[in-house]
From TrEMBL:
Coiled coil: none annotated. Residues 1-19 form the signal peptide. Residues 73-127 form the Kazal-like domain. PROSITE patterns: KAZAL_2. This is Kazal-like domain-containing protein.
Amino acid sequence: MKKLIVLVALVLSATAALGNVAERVEGKLINKRLVTAHETYQLTSLVAGAQECASGIFTIVEDTFGGSDTYSLINVDSCFKTVRPIFCPEVYMPVCAANGEEERTYSNTCFMNGSGAKFVHLGECGTLE
């Protein structure tokens, strides 16, 4: 009986420990939710200063006692200066943009904004006369 109790205690502690594995995700903070390209995480707590970062890379852990499918945001790994889009439509409306000195054609403004490039003109690069 003693061995069974010890075994159950070990299984429960291992399960709790596995629930606290930290995970790094990129997304947007919206009303105590972290929205990513693939999933939305309901947050029960945020690290200090997280609300000032609307979009970035965050470290979260699953709450073991906060209820099912809830998470705590424990670190802001990287905060993006501009909000990067999570989804971009696959529509070809080319724009020319520059990332530093190099100009590049992007499929549309969504992909341009996601790259952080600066708008130059509508249409493909090299088409203005």
